[in-house]
Amino acid sequence: MTSAPAPIKAKLRIGDLVFSRSAVFAGSMILVTLAAVAIFLIVQSIPAVVASSEDASILKTNFWDYVGPLVFGTVWAAALALLVALPISIGIALFISHYAPRRLASVLGYVVDLLAAVPSVVFGLWGIGVFAPALVDAYAWLNENLGWIPLFSGTPSATGRTILTAALVLAVMVLPIMTAICREVFLQTPVLHEEAALALGATRWEMIRTAVLPFGRSGIISASVLGLGRALGETMAVAMVLSASPVITFQLLTSVNPNTIAANIALSFPEAYGLNVNVLIATGLILFVVTFAVNAFARWIVSRRKEFSGAN
Amino acid sequence: MSKRIEVRDLNVYYSKFLAVEGVNLAIEPRSVTAFIGPSGCGKSTFLRTLNRMHEVIPGARVEGEVLIDGNNLYDPDVDPVLVRRQVGMVFQRPNPFPTMSIKENVLAGVKLNNKRISKPDAEELVERSLRGANLWNEVKDRLDRPGSGLSGGQQQRLCIARAIAVSPEVILMDEPCSALDPISTLAIEDLIEDLKQKYTIVIVTHNMQQASRVSDKTAFFNIAGTGKPGNLIEYNDTTTIFSNPSVQATEDYVSGRFG
Protein backbone atom coordinates (compact mmCIF):
# COMPACT_ATOMS: atom_id res chain seq x y z
CA MET A 1 0.00 0.00 0.00
CA THR A 2 1.49 3.28 -1.09
CA SER A 3 0.74 6.17 1.13
CA ALA A 4 0.30 9.66 -0.14
CA PRO A 5 3.30 11.88 0.50
CA ALA A 6 3.04 13.39 3.93
CA PRO A 7 1.82 16.99 3.74
CA ILE A 8 4.52 19.48 4.50
CA LYS A 9 3.90 20.84 7.93
CA ALA A 10 4.63 24.43 8.73
CA LYS A 11 7.24 24.71 11.39
CA LEU A 12 5.60 25.35 14.75
CA ARG A 13 6.93 28.52 16.26
CA ILE A 14 6.25 29.22 19.92
CA GLY A 15 5.48 32.90 19.28
CA ASP A 16 2.86 32.11 16.63
CA LEU A 17 1.29 29.56 18.93
CA VAL A 18 1.05 31.93 21.90
CA PHE A 19 -0.36 34.68 19.75
CA SER A 20 -2.96 32.55 18.00
CA ARG A 21 -4.13 30.94 21.26
CA SER A 22 -4.47 34.28 23.03
CA ALA A 23 -6.32 35.77 20.05
CA VAL A 24 -8.74 32.83 20.04
CA PHE A 25 -9.19 33.21 23.79
CA ALA A 26 -9.91 36.94 23.54
CA GLY A 27 -12.34 36.36 20.69
CA SER A 28 -14.23 33.63 22.47
CA MET A 29 -14.51 35.71 25.65
CA ILE A 30 -16.84 38.06 23.77
CA LEU A 31 -19.14 35.20 22.86
CA VAL A 32 -18.99 33.77 26.39
CA THR A 33 -19.83 37.12 27.96
CA LEU A 34 -22.69 37.74 25.55
CA ALA A 35 -24.07 34.26 26.11
CA ALA A 36 -23.78 34.63 29.89
CA VAL A 37 -25.68 37.92 29.83
CA ALA A 38 -28.36 36.51 27.54
CA ILE A 39 -28.80 33.39 29.67
CA PHE A 40 -29.00 35.44 32.85
CA LEU A 41 -31.60 37.76 31.35
CA ILE A 42 -33.73 34.96 29.93
CA VAL A 43 -33.67 32.76 33.05
CA GLN A 44 -34.47 35.65 35.36
CA SER A 45 -37.17 36.98 33.03
CA ILE A 46 -39.29 33.87 32.65
CA PRO A 47 -41.05 34.19 36.03
CA ALA A 48 -41.76 37.85 35.39
CA VAL A 49 -43.25 37.39 31.94
CA VAL A 50 -45.91 35.02 33.25
CA ALA A 51 -46.50 36.92 36.51
CA SER A 52 -49.68 38.84 37.31
CA SER A 53 -50.27 41.83 39.56
CA GLU A 54 -50.83 39.48 42.50
CA ASP A 55 -47.32 38.07 42.22
CA ALA A 56 -45.42 41.28 41.62
CA SER A 57 -46.61 44.52 43.18
CA ILE A 58 -44.98 46.64 40.51
CA LEU A 59 -47.35 45.28 37.85
CA LYS A 60 -50.82 46.73 37.43
CA THR A 61 -52.14 44.00 35.17
CA ASN A 62 -49.48 41.91 33.44
CA PHE A 63 -45.89 42.24 32.26
CA TRP A 64 -46.67 43.31 28.70
CA ASP A 65 -48.86 46.20 29.85
CA TYR A 66 -46.02 47.26 32.09
CA VAL A 67 -43.27 47.13 29.50
CA GLY A 68 -45.31 48.63 26.62
CA PRO A 69 -45.07 52.30 27.65
CA LEU A 70 -41.42 51.81 28.55
CA VAL A 71 -40.55 50.45 25.12
CA PHE A 72 -42.47 53.31 23.57
CA GLY A 73 -40.67 55.87 25.73
CA THR A 74 -37.28 54.37 24.95
CA VAL A 75 -37.79 54.33 21.20
CA TRP A 76 -39.55 57.70 21.15
CA ALA A 77 -36.82 59.51 23.11
CA ALA A 78 -34.07 57.87 21.06
CA ALA A 79 -35.79 58.68 17.77
CA LEU A 80 -36.28 62.33 18.78
CA ALA A 81 -32.64 62.52 19.82
CA LEU A 82 -31.58 61.10 16.47
CA LEU A 83 -33.80 63.53 14.59
CA VAL A 84 -32.06 66.44 16.29
CA ALA A 85 -28.54 65.02 16.26
CA LEU A 86 -28.37 63.77 12.66
CA PRO A 87 -28.48 67.07 10.76
CA ILE A 88 -26.20 68.72 13.31
CA SER A 89 -23.63 65.97 13.15
CA ILE A 90 -23.65 65.91 9.34
CA GLY A 91 -23.18 69.68 9.43
CA ILE A 92 -20.27 69.51 11.88
CA ALA A 93 -18.69 66.63 9.96
CA LEU A 94 -18.93 68.50 6.65
CA PHE A 95 -17.51 71.61 8.24
CA ILE A 96 -14.56 69.66 9.63
CA SER A 97 -13.96 67.65 6.46
CA HIS A 98 -14.58 70.21 3.74
CA TYR A 99 -15.00 73.75 4.99
CA ALA A 100 -12.77 74.50 7.96
CA PRO A 101 -9.12 75.43 7.51
CA ARG A 102 -6.97 72.44 8.37
CA ARG A 103 -5.74 73.64 11.75
CA LEU A 104 -9.19 74.61 12.97
CA ALA A 105 -10.57 71.32 11.66
CA SER A 106 -8.19 69.20 13.71
CA VAL A 107 -8.87 71.22 16.87
CA LEU A 108 -12.59 70.97 16.29
CA GLY A 109 -12.43 67.25 15.65
CA TYR A 110 -10.56 66.86 18.92
CA VAL A 111 -13.15 68.90 20.83
CA VAL A 112 -15.99 66.83 19.42
CA ASP A 113 -14.23 63.63 20.46
CA LEU A 114 -13.72 65.14 23.91
CA LEU A 115 -17.48 65.59 24.19
CA ALA A 116 -17.75 61.81 24.09
CA ALA A 117 -15.60 61.59 27.21
CA VAL A 118 -18.01 63.59 29.40
CA PRO A 119 -19.66 61.14 31.83
CA SER A 120 -23.40 60.82 31.37
CA VAL A 121 -24.09 61.79 34.98
CA VAL A 122 -22.56 65.18 34.17
CA PHE A 123 -24.96 65.55 31.26
CA GLY A 124 -27.74 64.59 33.66
CA LEU A 125 -26.73 67.24 36.17
CA TRP A 126 -26.46 69.82 33.44
CA GLY A 127 -29.83 68.77 32.04
CA ILE A 128 -31.60 69.01 35.36
CA GLY A 129 -29.81 72.07 36.70
CA VAL A 130 -29.34 74.28 33.65
CA PHE A 131 -30.95 72.98 30.52
CA ALA A 132 -34.43 72.06 31.77
CA PRO A 133 -35.08 75.37 33.61
CA ALA A 134 -33.75 77.26 30.60
CA LEU A 135 -36.24 75.53 28.34
CA VAL A 136 -39.36 76.27 30.39
CA ASP A 137 -40.01 79.59 28.68
CA ALA A 138 -39.31 78.15 25.24
CA TYR A 139 -41.77 75.34 25.90
CA ALA A 140 -44.43 77.78 27.06
CA TRP A 141 -43.92 79.78 23.87
CA LEU A 142 -44.09 76.68 21.68
CA ASN A 143 -47.26 75.59 23.46
CA GLU A 144 -48.88 78.96 23.06
CA ASN A 145 -48.04 79.47 19.40
CA LEU A 146 -47.85 75.96 18.01
CA GLY A 147 -50.21 74.26 20.43
CA TRP A 148 -52.49 73.27 17.56
CA ILE A 149 -49.87 70.72 16.56
CA PRO A 150 -50.62 67.66 18.72
CA LEU A 151 -46.92 67.29 19.59
CA PHE A 152 -46.92 70.63 21.39
CA SER A 153 -50.41 70.45 22.91
CA GLY A 154 -51.35 69.97 26.58
CA THR A 155 -50.22 71.95 29.60
CA PRO A 156 -46.51 72.76 29.40
CA SER A 157 -44.36 71.46 32.21
CA ALA A 158 -43.34 73.97 34.89
CA THR A 159 -40.01 72.29 35.48
CA GLY A 160 -38.96 71.68 31.87
CA ARG A 161 -38.17 68.06 32.71
CA THR A 162 -40.02 66.64 29.71
CA ILE A 163 -39.32 63.93 27.17
CA LEU A 164 -38.15 66.62 24.76
CA THR A 165 -35.54 67.85 27.23
CA ALA A 166 -34.37 64.27 27.76
CA ALA A 167 -34.21 63.75 23.99
CA LEU A 168 -32.19 66.95 23.54
CA VAL A 169 -29.72 65.86 26.23
CA LEU A 170 -29.49 62.49 24.50
CA ALA A 171 -28.88 64.27 21.20
CA VAL A 172 -25.89 66.06 22.67
CA MET A 173 -24.61 62.75 23.99
CA VAL A 174 -24.84 60.86 20.68
CA LEU A 175 -23.44 63.76 18.67
CA PRO A 176 -19.73 62.86 19.05
CA ILE A 177 -19.95 59.29 17.76
CA MET A 178 -22.18 60.29 14.86
CA THR A 179 -19.97 63.23 13.94
CA ALA A 180 -16.85 61.09 14.12
CA ILE A 181 -18.24 58.44 11.77
CA CYS A 182 -19.66 60.95 9.29
CA ARG A 183 -16.38 62.86 9.30
CA GLU A 184 -14.35 59.74 8.57
CA VAL A 185 -16.63 58.75 5.70
CA PHE A 186 -16.67 62.23 4.21
CA LEU A 187 -12.88 62.41 4.37
CA GLN A 188 -12.68 59.18 2.38
CA THR A 189 -14.56 60.61 -0.58
CA PRO A 190 -12.28 59.93 -3.57
CA VAL A 191 -10.54 63.14 -4.64
CA LEU A 192 -11.26 62.05 -8.22
CA HIS A 193 -14.99 62.44 -7.70
CA GLU A 194 -14.66 65.74 -5.90
CA GLU A 195 -12.50 67.07 -8.73
CA ALA A 196 -14.93 65.72 -11.32
CA ALA A 197 -17.68 67.79 -9.75
CA LEU A 198 -15.53 70.90 -9.37
CA ALA A 199 -14.27 70.68 -12.94
CA LEU A 200 -17.88 70.73 -14.14
CA GLY A 201 -18.26 74.09 -12.45
CA ALA A 202 -19.77 72.98 -9.16
CA THR A 203 -19.68 75.29 -6.18
CA ARG A 204 -18.40 73.76 -2.99
CA TRP A 205 -21.90 72.92 -1.78
CA GLU A 206 -22.81 71.42 -5.15
CA MET A 207 -19.62 69.37 -5.06
CA ILE A 208 -20.65 68.06 -1.64
CA ARG A 209 -24.10 67.21 -2.95
CA THR A 210 -22.92 65.44 -6.10
CA ALA A 211 -19.80 63.71 -4.77
CA VAL A 212 -19.52 63.66 -0.97
CA LEU A 213 -23.04 62.97 0.27
CA PRO A 214 -23.89 60.15 -2.20
CA PHE A 215 -20.56 58.52 -1.38
CA GLY A 216 -21.15 58.90 2.35
CA ARG A 217 -24.79 57.86 2.36
CA SER A 218 -24.37 54.43 3.87
CA GLY A 219 -21.85 55.84 6.35
CA ILE A 220 -24.44 58.38 7.44
CA ILE A 221 -26.97 55.61 7.87
CA SER A 222 -24.69 53.49 10.00
CA ALA A 223 -23.69 56.53 12.06
CA SER A 224 -27.32 57.23 12.85
CA VAL A 225 -28.04 53.64 13.75
CA LEU A 226 -25.06 53.55 16.11
CA GLY A 227 -26.21 56.85 17.64
CA LEU A 228 -29.68 55.37 18.00
CA GLY A 229 -28.21 52.36 19.79
CA ARG A 230 -26.41 54.58 22.24
CA ALA A 231 -29.52 56.70 22.86
CA LEU A 232 -31.64 53.59 23.47
CA GLY A 233 -29.38 52.35 26.23
CA GLU A 234 -28.56 55.64 27.95
CA THR A 235 -29.58 55.48 31.61
CA MET A 236 -28.27 58.12 33.94
CA ALA A 237 -28.99 61.30 32.03
CA VAL A 238 -32.56 60.26 31.26
CA ALA A 239 -33.20 59.02 34.79
CA MET A 240 -32.10 62.37 36.16
CA VAL A 241 -33.75 64.68 33.65
CA LEU A 242 -37.09 63.04 32.97
CA SER A 243 -40.07 63.21 35.29
CA ALA A 244 -41.89 60.11 34.17
CA SER A 245 -45.18 58.25 34.44
CA PRO A 246 -46.31 54.98 32.88
CA VAL A 247 -48.09 56.41 29.84
CA ILE A 248 -47.89 56.38 26.07
CA THR A 249 -48.17 59.92 24.76
CA PHE A 250 -46.69 61.87 21.87
CA GLN A 251 -47.04 65.19 23.69
CA LEU A 252 -43.57 66.64 24.12
CA LEU A 253 -44.06 69.47 26.55
CA THR A 254 -46.29 68.24 29.37
CA SER A 255 -45.23 66.97 32.78
CA VAL A 256 -46.69 63.55 31.92
CA ASN A 257 -43.95 61.70 30.04
CA PRO A 258 -43.28 58.06 29.23
CA ASN A 259 -40.17 56.65 30.86
CA THR A 260 -37.37 54.73 29.15
CA ILE A 261 -36.47 51.16 30.04
CA ALA A 262 -32.95 51.90 31.24
CA ALA A 263 -33.95 54.90 33.34
CA ASN A 264 -36.88 52.99 34.82
CA ILE A 265 -34.60 50.15 35.92
CA ALA A 266 -32.18 52.58 37.52
CA LEU A 267 -34.96 54.36 39.39
CA SER A 268 -37.01 51.33 40.47
CA PHE A 269 -34.29 48.87 41.29
CA PRO A 270 -33.26 50.16 44.73
CA GLU A 271 -36.78 49.57 46.08
CA ALA A 272 -37.51 46.36 44.22
CA TYR A 273 -37.94 43.02 46.00
CA GLY A 274 -39.08 39.51 45.13
CA LEU A 275 -40.63 39.10 41.72
CA ASN A 276 -40.42 42.85 41.05
CA VAL A 277 -36.70 42.36 40.51
CA ASN A 278 -37.47 39.78 37.84
CA VAL A 279 -39.89 42.16 36.17
CA LEU A 280 -37.17 44.81 35.92
CA ILE A 281 -34.70 42.28 34.58
CA ALA A 282 -37.26 41.24 32.00
CA THR A 283 -37.56 44.85 30.83
CA GLY A 284 -33.79 44.75 30.53
CA LEU A 285 -34.15 41.71 28.26
CA ILE A 286 -36.55 43.67 26.06
CA LEU A 287 -34.04 46.53 25.86
CA PHE A 288 -31.33 44.01 24.99
CA VAL A 289 -33.48 42.69 22.14
CA VAL A 290 -34.30 46.17 20.82
CA THR A 291 -30.66 47.30 20.93
CA PHE A 292 -29.54 44.04 19.39
CA ALA A 293 -31.98 44.53 16.53
CA VAL A 294 -30.70 48.06 15.95
CA ASN A 295 -27.09 46.88 15.91
CA ALA A 296 -27.87 44.02 13.56
CA PHE A 297 -29.55 46.53 11.28
CA ALA A 298 -26.42 48.69 11.38
CA ARG A 299 -24.23 45.70 10.52
CA TRP A 300 -26.42 44.91 7.59
CA ILE A 301 -26.27 48.48 6.31
CA VAL A 302 -22.49 48.63 6.70
CA SER A 303 -22.04 45.33 4.88
CA ARG A 304 -24.05 46.66 1.98
CA ARG A 305 -21.26 49.21 1.49
CA LYS A 306 -18.99 46.50 0.09
CA GLU A 307 -20.95 46.16 -3.11
CA PHE A 308 -21.30 49.91 -3.32
CA SER A 309 -17.84 50.36 -4.78
CA GLY A 310 -17.17 54.05 -4.62
CA ALA A 311 -13.62 53.98 -5.94
CA ASN A 312 -13.21 52.46 -9.35
CA MET B 1 -17.71 77.82 -28.99
CA SER B 2 -13.96 77.91 -28.97
CA LYS B 3 -11.53 80.45 -27.69
CA ARG B 4 -7.93 81.53 -27.80
CA ILE B 5 -5.85 81.09 -24.67
CA GLU B 6 -2.92 83.31 -23.88
CA VAL B 7 -0.60 82.74 -20.94
CA ARG B 8 1.71 85.52 -19.77
CA ASP B 9 4.61 85.14 -17.33
CA LEU B 10 2.92 82.46 -15.32
CA ASN B 11 4.52 81.16 -12.13
CA VAL B 12 2.85 78.42 -10.11
CA TYR B 13 3.68 77.89 -6.45
CA TYR B 14 2.83 75.17 -3.97
CA SER B 15 3.07 77.23 -0.80
CA LYS B 16 6.65 78.52 -1.09
CA PHE B 17 7.85 75.99 -3.64
CA LEU B 18 8.01 77.33 -7.17
CA ALA B 19 6.64 74.48 -9.30
CA VAL B 20 6.43 76.06 -12.74
CA GLU B 21 8.28 79.17 -13.78
CA GLY B 22 7.76 81.86 -16.37
CA VAL B 23 5.46 80.25 -18.91
CA ASN B 24 4.47 82.27 -21.96
CA LEU B 25 2.22 80.52 -24.41
CA ALA B 26 -0.58 81.17 -26.90
CA ILE B 27 -3.06 78.46 -27.83
CA GLU B 28 -5.16 78.95 -30.93
CA PRO B 29 -8.87 78.14 -31.05
CA ARG B 30 -9.99 74.86 -32.67
CA SER B 31 -6.62 73.26 -32.31
CA VAL B 32 -5.10 70.47 -30.28
CA THR B 33 -2.11 71.38 -28.17
CA ALA B 34 -0.06 68.67 -26.47
CA PHE B 35 2.10 69.15 -23.40
CA ILE B 36 4.95 66.66 -23.18
CA GLY B 37 7.84 66.28 -20.80
CA PRO B 38 9.25 64.07 -18.04
CA SER B 39 7.27 63.30 -14.87
CA GLY B 40 7.25 66.07 -12.30
CA CYS B 41 8.07 68.82 -14.78
CA GLY B 42 4.85 70.65 -14.05
CA LYS B 43 2.77 69.92 -17.16
CA SER B 44 -0.26 68.78 -15.19
CA THR B 45 0.17 71.57 -12.68
CA PHE B 46 0.29 74.09 -15.49
CA LEU B 47 -2.72 72.50 -17.21
CA ARG B 48 -4.74 72.89 -14.03
CA THR B 49 -3.99 76.61 -13.89
CA LEU B 50 -5.90 76.98 -17.16
CA ASN B 51 -9.21 76.36 -15.37
CA ARG B 52 -8.10 77.18 -11.82
CA MET B 53 -8.39 73.55 -10.73
CA HIS B 54 -5.00 73.90 -9.02
CA GLU B 55 -6.81 75.93 -6.37
CA VAL B 56 -8.32 72.69 -5.11
CA ILE B 57 -4.85 71.74 -3.86
CA PRO B 58 -4.14 73.52 -0.56
CA GLY B 59 -1.38 76.10 -0.84
CA ALA B 60 -1.31 76.25 -4.64
CA ARG B 61 -1.26 79.74 -6.12
CA VAL B 62 -0.40 81.51 -9.30
CA GLU B 63 1.36 84.68 -10.45
CA GLY B 64 0.85 86.04 -13.92
CA GLU B 65 -2.05 86.06 -16.33
CA VAL B 66 -4.13 83.56 -18.24
CA LEU B 67 -6.28 85.29 -20.84
CA ILE B 68 -9.15 83.53 -22.52
CA ASP B 69 -10.25 85.74 -25.42
CA GLY B 70 -8.65 88.65 -23.60
CA ASN B 71 -10.30 88.07 -20.22
CA ASN B 72 -7.91 87.33 -17.38
CA LEU B 73 -8.96 84.22 -15.43
CA TYR B 74 -7.14 85.53 -12.39
CA ASP B 75 -8.90 88.85 -12.25
CA PRO B 76 -9.99 89.35 -8.62
CA ASP B 77 -13.67 89.37 -9.47
CA VAL B 78 -13.65 86.28 -11.67
CA ASP B 79 -15.48 83.36 -10.08
CA PRO B 80 -13.51 80.10 -10.47
CA VAL B 81 -16.81 78.24 -10.69
CA LEU B 82 -17.69 80.14 -13.88
CA VAL B 83 -14.20 79.60 -15.28
CA ARG B 84 -14.61 75.86 -14.90
CA ARG B 85 -17.91 75.92 -16.73
CA GLN B 86 -16.11 77.44 -19.71
CA VAL B 87 -13.01 75.31 -19.44
CA GLY B 88 -13.90 71.65 -18.93
CA MET B 89 -11.54 68.96 -17.79
CA VAL B 90 -11.00 65.23 -18.30
CA PHE B 91 -8.82 63.44 -15.79
CA GLN B 92 -6.14 60.79 -15.85
CA ARG B 93 -8.39 58.10 -14.43
CA PRO B 94 -12.00 57.85 -15.58
CA ASN B 95 -14.15 59.28 -12.78
CA PRO B 96 -17.86 58.95 -13.49
CA PHE B 97 -19.96 59.48 -10.37
CA PRO B 98 -20.44 55.94 -9.04
CA THR B 99 -23.89 56.51 -7.60
CA MET B 100 -25.32 57.94 -10.82
CA SER B 101 -26.59 56.27 -13.96
CA ILE B 102 -25.02 56.94 -17.33
CA LYS B 103 -27.69 59.49 -18.12
CA GLU B 104 -27.39 61.24 -14.76
CA ASN B 105 -23.64 61.41 -15.24
CA VAL B 106 -24.01 63.19 -18.54
CA LEU B 107 -26.50 65.62 -17.02
CA ALA B 108 -24.54 66.16 -13.79
CA GLY B 109 -22.90 69.38 -14.91
CA VAL B 110 -26.05 70.76 -16.49
CA LYS B 111 -28.10 70.26 -13.35
CA LEU B 112 -25.67 72.24 -11.21
CA ASN B 113 -26.49 75.76 -10.20
CA ASN B 114 -30.14 74.78 -9.67
CA LYS B 115 -30.76 74.79 -13.37
CA ARG B 116 -33.89 72.97 -14.48
CA ILE B 117 -34.00 71.18 -17.78
CA SER B 118 -37.15 69.77 -19.36
CA LYS B 119 -37.32 66.06 -20.00
CA PRO B 120 -37.21 66.16 -23.81
CA ASP B 121 -34.35 68.69 -23.70
CA ALA B 122 -32.48 66.44 -21.29
CA GLU B 123 -32.96 63.39 -23.51
CA GLU B 124 -31.80 65.34 -26.51
CA LEU B 125 -28.73 66.66 -24.68
CA VAL B 126 -27.83 63.21 -23.40
CA GLU B 127 -27.97 61.79 -26.89
CA ARG B 128 -26.06 64.69 -28.42
CA SER B 129 -23.32 64.55 -25.78
CA LEU B 130 -22.97 60.78 -25.95
CA ARG B 131 -22.86 60.89 -29.75
CA GLY B 132 -20.27 63.65 -29.45
CA ALA B 133 -18.20 61.32 -27.28
CA ASN B 134 -18.68 58.37 -29.67
CA LEU B 135 -20.41 56.41 -26.94
CA TRP B 136 -24.08 56.57 -27.93
CA ASN B 137 -24.28 53.31 -29.85
CA GLU B 138 -22.64 51.38 -27.05
CA VAL B 139 -24.82 52.64 -24.22
CA LYS B 140 -28.13 53.74 -25.74
CA ASP B 141 -29.92 50.66 -24.38
CA ARG B 142 -28.65 51.05 -20.84
CA LEU B 143 -28.76 54.75 -20.05
CA ASP B 144 -30.23 54.02 -16.63
CA ARG B 145 -27.48 51.59 -15.64
CA PRO B 146 -24.66 52.78 -13.38
CA GLY B 147 -21.80 54.53 -15.17
CA SER B 148 -19.27 52.57 -13.15
CA GLY B 149 -20.40 49.39 -14.93
CA LEU B 150 -18.78 50.45 -18.20
CA SER B 151 -15.27 49.51 -19.32
CA GLY B 152 -12.41 51.92 -18.60
CA GLY B 153 -12.38 53.36 -22.10
CA GLN B 154 -16.16 53.75 -22.12
CA GLN B 155 -16.01 55.44 -18.72
CA GLN B 156 -13.44 57.89 -20.03
CA ARG B 157 -15.66 58.69 -23.02
CA LEU B 158 -18.57 59.07 -20.60
CA CYS B 159 -16.47 61.65 -18.74
CA ILE B 160 -15.82 63.43 -22.02
CA ALA B 161 -19.56 63.39 -22.74
CA ARG B 162 -20.15 64.84 -19.29
CA ALA B 163 -17.60 67.57 -19.97
CA ILE B 164 -19.03 68.56 -23.37
CA ALA B 165 -22.62 68.48 -22.09
CA VAL B 166 -22.07 71.83 -20.38
CA SER B 167 -20.80 73.26 -23.72
CA PRO B 168 -17.41 74.55 -22.62
CA GLU B 169 -15.10 76.61 -24.83
CA VAL B 170 -11.99 74.64 -23.97
CA ILE B 171 -11.40 71.04 -22.91
CA LEU B 172 -8.34 70.17 -20.86
CA MET B 173 -7.25 66.54 -20.82
CA ASP B 174 -4.79 65.36 -18.21
CA GLU B 175 -3.26 62.14 -19.59
CA PRO B 176 -6.70 60.87 -20.60
CA CYS B 177 -5.43 57.57 -22.00
CA SER B 178 -2.81 56.57 -19.47
CA ALA B 179 -5.20 54.14 -17.75
CA LEU B 180 -6.57 52.68 -21.00
CA ASP B 181 -5.70 49.86 -23.36
CA PRO B 182 -4.54 50.59 -26.96
CA ILE B 183 -8.00 50.08 -28.55
CA SER B 184 -9.68 52.45 -26.10
CA THR B 185 -6.80 54.87 -26.56
CA LEU B 186 -7.39 54.85 -30.29
CA ALA B 187 -11.09 55.54 -29.72
CA ILE B 188 -10.24 58.56 -27.57
CA GLU B 189 -7.69 59.82 -30.09
CA ASP B 190 -10.26 59.62 -32.90
CA LEU B 191 -12.65 61.47 -30.65
CA ILE B 192 -10.11 64.24 -30.01
CA GLU B 193 -9.82 64.65 -33.79
CA ASP B 194 -13.62 65.17 -33.98
CA LEU B 195 -13.84 67.43 -30.96
CA LYS B 196 -11.23 69.71 -32.48
CA GLN B 197 -13.87 70.98 -34.93
CA LYS B 198 -15.72 72.65 -32.07
CA TYR B 199 -13.42 73.02 -29.10
CA THR B 200 -9.96 74.16 -28.18
CA ILE B 201 -8.22 71.12 -26.73
CA VAL B 202 -5.17 70.94 -24.52
CA ILE B 203 -3.84 67.51 -23.71
CA VAL B 204 -1.07 66.36 -21.37
CA THR B 205 0.48 63.09 -22.44
CA HIS B 206 3.43 60.87 -21.66
CA ASN B 207 3.01 59.08 -24.92
CA MET B 208 5.00 60.85 -27.63
CA GLN B 209 3.37 58.91 -30.46
CA GLN B 210 0.06 60.13 -29.12
CA ALA B 211 1.27 63.72 -29.08
CA SER B 212 2.47 63.45 -32.66
CA ARG B 213 -0.74 61.74 -33.78
CA VAL B 214 -3.33 64.05 -32.25
CA SER B 215 -1.80 67.47 -31.77
CA ASP B 216 -1.26 70.47 -34.01
CA LYS B 217 1.18 72.13 -31.66
CA THR B 218 3.39 70.70 -28.95
CA ALA B 219 4.90 72.26 -25.86
CA PHE B 220 7.91 70.58 -24.26
CA PHE B 221 8.36 71.11 -20.52
CA ASN B 222 11.46 70.17 -18.63
CA ILE B 223 12.94 70.40 -15.19
CA ALA B 224 16.57 71.15 -14.35
CA GLY B 225 16.65 68.81 -11.38
CA THR B 226 14.66 67.79 -8.29
CA GLY B 227 13.50 70.79 -6.29
CA LYS B 228 13.92 73.08 -9.29
CA PRO B 229 10.93 74.63 -11.06
CA GLY B 230 9.60 73.26 -14.33
CA ASN B 231 10.04 75.39 -17.44
CA LEU B 232 8.53 75.59 -20.87
CA ILE B 233 11.51 74.71 -23.07
CA GLU B 234 10.05 74.82 -26.52
CA TYR B 235 6.66 75.42 -28.10
CA ASN B 236 6.09 74.94 -31.81
CA ASP B 237 4.20 73.01 -34.48
CA THR B 238 4.12 69.34 -33.63
CA THR B 239 5.91 68.37 -36.84
CA THR B 240 8.73 70.79 -36.06
CA ILE B 241 9.07 69.61 -32.47
CA PHE B 242 9.32 66.00 -33.54
CA SER B 243 11.45 66.40 -36.68
CA ASN B 244 13.50 69.52 -36.26
CA PRO B 245 13.45 70.91 -32.72
CA SER B 246 15.54 73.99 -32.05
CA VAL B 247 16.60 73.03 -28.53
CA GLN B 248 18.91 70.10 -27.84
CA ALA B 249 16.92 68.97 -24.75
CA THR B 250 13.78 68.65 -26.83
CA GLU B 251 15.54 66.55 -29.43
CA ASP B 252 16.98 64.31 -26.72
CA TYR B 253 13.55 63.85 -25.17
CA VAL B 254 11.53 63.17 -28.32
CA SER B 255 14.16 60.80 -29.67
CA GLY B 256 14.28 58.89 -26.39
CA ARG B 257 17.85 59.86 -25.51
CA PHE B 258 16.72 61.62 -22.38
CA GLY B 259 18.66 61.23 -19.13
Automatic annotation (TrEMBL), chain A:
PROSITE patterns in the record: ABC_TM1
Q: Which domain of life is it from?
A: Bacteria
Entry-linked InterPro entries = MetI-like, MetI-like_sf, Phosphate_PstC, Phosphate_Transport_Permease
Q: Its membrane topology, per UniProt?
A: Multi-pass membrane protein
Gene3D superfamilies hit by this protein: MetI-like (1.10.3720.10)
What keywords sit in the KW lines? Cell membrane, Membrane, Phosphate transport, Transmembrane, Transmembrane helix, Transport
Where does this one sit in the cell?
A: Cell membrane
Domain ABC transmembrane type-1 residues, every copy? 71-298
Cellular component GO terms, alphabetically? plasma membrane
Q: TM spans, by residue?
A: 23-50, 70-96, 108-141, 161-182, 231-253, 273-298
- What's a single GO MF annotation on this record? phosphate transmembrane transporter activity
**Record GO biological process:** phosphate ion transport
Where does this protein chiefly localize? membrane
- Which protein family is named in the record? Belongs to the binding-protein-dependent transport system permease family. CysTW subfamily.
| NCBIfam families listed in its UniProt record | phosphate_pstC
Its job: Part of the binding-protein-dependent transport system for phosphate; probably responsible for the translocation of the substrate across the membrane.
Q: Could you tell me what this protein is called? A: Phosphate transport system permease protein
The top of its lineage is:
Bacteria, Bacillati, Actinomycetota, Actinomycetes, Micrococcales
TrEMBL record, chain B:
- SMART domains referenced in this protein's UniProt entry, alphabetically: AAA
Which part of the chain is the ABC transporter domain? Answer: 5-248
Arranged from A to Z, the UniProt key words for this protein are:
ATP-binding, Nucleotide-binding, Translocase, Transport
Asked if the keyword Nucleotide-binding belongs to this entry, the reply reads yes
Q: Name one GO molecular function term.
A: ATP hydrolysis activity
Record has DNA-binding as a keyword: no
Quote the InterPro entries the UniProt record gives.
AAA+_ATPase, ABC_transporter-like_ATP-bd, ABC_transporter-like_CS, P-loop_NTPase, PstB-like
User: Do you know which PROSITE patterns this protein is assigned to?
Assistant: ABC_TRANSPORTER_1, ABC_TRANSPORTER_2
Q: Which GO terms describe its biological process?
A: phosphate ion transmembrane transport
Q: Name one GO cellular component term.
A: membrane
Top-level taxon of origin = Bacteria
Alphabetical list of NCBIfam families matching this protein: 3a0107s01c2 (TIGR00972)
> What's the protein name?
Phosphate ABC transporter ATP-binding protein
